[in-house]
Design goal:
alpha+beta, five-stranded mixed sheet, two-stranded antiparallel ribbon, 9 strands, globular
Length: 153
Amino acid sequence: MADRPTGRGAERVAVPSQRAAGGRTAIGAAARRPCTVVVCRGCCCGVARKHPGFDHAWQLERLRAAASDGGFQVRTTDCLGPCDQANVVVVQPSADGRRAGGRATWVGFAMDDDCTQEILAWAAAGGPGLAAPPATLELQFISPPRGGRVRRR
């Protein structure tokens, strides 16, 4: 346990911590954070008008159902930026994966059943830093936009 002040001149409160590789300390929930799949549902991703014929709700339901066992998390977010490569999904490493060198991986054109299944399998296996991505999924890796989000509403 590590101590931290809770306010100006306040008593010290015990906070669980875990010694991470490189001597840094991961605190609380961050020490146990699972792999996270971030699904863009902004201006272009997840929009039937841009991608008619694809069941965006089904994809999100499938991702969430697979994550329900607690092996990884699924979140949605507003526009991530590379709208010309929609649908965009970002696979973020778990705490263990980050300590092993894994970094967030951006996947573009993530719309067909095979791509969705490969993302699920990779996240369930541990994601970046802990498991190698499927070779066919690597073909869909894209670069994140420079300087944060590119599109602004």
